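Hi there,

I know you've been waiting on this one. I reran it after we fixed the sequence typo, so this is the corrected version. Both the input and the resulting structure follow.
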Amino acid sequence: MTHDEEYGDNMVTMLELIWGEGYMAPGGPGNVAKLLSGIETQGKRILDIGCGIGGPALEMAKSHGAQVVGIDLEAPLIERANQSAHDLGLAGRCGFQAVDAGDLPFANESFDVVINSGAFTQTPNKNEIFAEAFRVLKRGGTLSSYDWLKSPGEFSEDMLYWFKMEELTYALETLEGFSQYFDAAGFVNVASEDATAWYREEARREYDLLKGDFYPRMVELLGQKDADHFVENWRSLVVVIDNGEMRQGYCRGQRPI
């Protein structure tokens, strides 16, 4: 199954500028620590679904002592991630591979932990990916997920405009809906946390940087057309966070022992 590449060079450059080297989702190392909070990681095998250019997976190996496999649908992102692992001397503990959508290319009960940082946000068939995460987890293992979410109801014109500016595939779900996917896949001890208030403040800070201090650098790196596009993208993001439509949250569950 093929996948149209959505994260071009300028998009990746922009995300790294605002979220930090190697990161394609907000929060940086702090978000990795929150995803792994309370989970034993030293020497454990972690699967990072939708690893992008590898920042979170490399952090798991470097700071949390894990053996990490990162997977993504987009081969150019995987190439960059593997190069970063090599450059940082982490290739022995952190490897990346491109995969097709559908069944994960791993045996049953292969991992102690499965991490998702925004990938399920863009996965239309959530029942399938939750079932696969359950399958590759060892008994007692944890799926820990951070996702961009939505409020209940139909999308407003503001939300549809933000989708247009993002130019990415979204399959948003409510936080309650995410919990139900965990339940349906067979996970237990399911817990969720709304993180919208945190990112509301972050998005405003990011928008101020993009239209202010970061703007000259963006024009230099991306050209003025793309720089202006991303400023407008973030303005529209702030709108849909402020009106309560675009939300964020954490959810985790365990495969029963």
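Quick highlight: The first strand starts at residue 45 and ends at 49.

Best,
R. S.
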